[in-house]
Amino acid sequence: MLPRFPGDPPRDLSRPLEELRLRIDARQSGARLDQALCFFLHWRSRTSVQKLIADGFVTVLGKPARAGIRVAAGDEVRVRIPPRATPDPVGPPEDLPIPILYEDRWMVALDKPAGLAVHPAGRRVHGTLIHFLHQRYRRPGDPAHDVVPRLLHRIDRETSGVVAASLDEDHHARVGHLFEARAVRKTYLAVVHGCPDPAEGLVDFGIGPAADSPIRLKLEARRDGSGLPALTRYRVLRRSDPFALVELEPRTGRTHQLRVHMAAIGCPLVGDKIYGVDERFFLEHLAGELSAESRTRLVLERQALHAHRLRFLHPGLGRELELEAPLPADMAALIDR
């Protein structure tokens, strides 16, 4: 519910919000202006509130104010609401076919292909998913349509599937809280060596560093109760010797969790260079020296992991939204052969 200035008539909700008039009460008396506004404008981040103040959209007792001034009980604060930029997307370039799974005024979801990084890192500074999104939505010369997309979550470069991004600052903050609170249900598909037995279950092994591995980022499952707690629900969907298609639902969000847990129960992901047949494949790959024999043993040159489904409460729509990306051809081929 939007705050209402004492004595003002009910707000006309059929029109866009252009200004808020607020009265500081005893709860905010003595607080910084930006902190007090965050109490009233609880749907906005503190950064966005500070930007409103810095851009001259906020007055206290009729005068422009700074974020750090202290407010007192009874002070009248006016906040002008700048018009919100609206998405005006263009189609994807022909050389970067990234399917759009869902799009509205608040967000967009894409089916990221394997091998595409979601954002710049290390020597990879161009050609990422976020570059594609900026190309699609940024309009620096047209402020009314200049939207800055922001990723709501990330998946590994080798992992394919659903990636969601916000097109609205408030939506980003609200859905971001859902991710932090583990209120977003994630479902993955994986092709693994062998077949888990039983065909459905819960892997409950802690995860910690693999001290005996030359790969510094490698982790391992801990059966002795040590490490960070980690839970993964799995279900076999289809078996096609020597592989199986498995549905995975992480109940926690540990690094490499699905890969570590599947390897721990004797069914590593096909193509996994770290937790698969031989960790030396990762060192060869890192050096750019992956041999033909190693490629054959890997079966697939990327880990057979696909972000299949996201489900969460869409704040703008007020209902649950389910986003789904179909099983990619390279993984389907392993099961259908």
Write the element-wise H/E pattern from the N-terminal end onward.
Answer: EHHEEEEEHEEHEEEEEEHHHEEH
CATH architecture level-2 label of the largest domain: 2-Layer Sandwich
Number of strands: 16
Shape: elongated
Structural class by sheet pairing and helices: alpha+beta
The share of residues in extended strands comes to 25-35%
Counting DSSP H or I runs of 4 or more residues, the number of helices is 8
Total domain units: 3
* Share in helix: 10-25%
Q: What do we call the CATH topology of the largest domain? A: Pseudouridine synthase
The gyration radius over C-alpha positions equals 25 Å
In CATH, the homologous superfamily of the largest domain goes by the name: Pseudouridine synthase
Low-confidence stretches: none
The CATH class designation of the largest domain is Alpha Beta
Distance between the termini: 56 Å
Overall pLDDT:
89
**What profile does the largest beta sheet have?**
10 strands, mixed
Secondary-structure map with pairings?
Layout: E1 19-23, H1 33-40, H2 46-54, E2 58-60, E3 63-64, E4 76-80, E5 100-103, E6 107-112, H3 129-137, E7 150-151, E8 160-166, H4 169-180, E9 185-193, E10 200-203, E11 206-209, E12 219-222, E13 232-240, E14 243-250, H5 257-264, H6 280-286, H7 292-298, E15 305-314, E16 319-324, H8 329-336
Helix pairs in contact: 1-2
Compact description:
This protein has 337 residues and is an alpha+beta fold. It folds into three domains: 19-80, Structural Genomics Hypothetical 15.5 Kd Protein In mrcA-pckA Intergenic Region, Chain A (Roll), CATH 3.10.290.10; 85-181, Pseudouridine synthase; 184-337, 2-Layer Sandwich (Pseudouridine synthase).
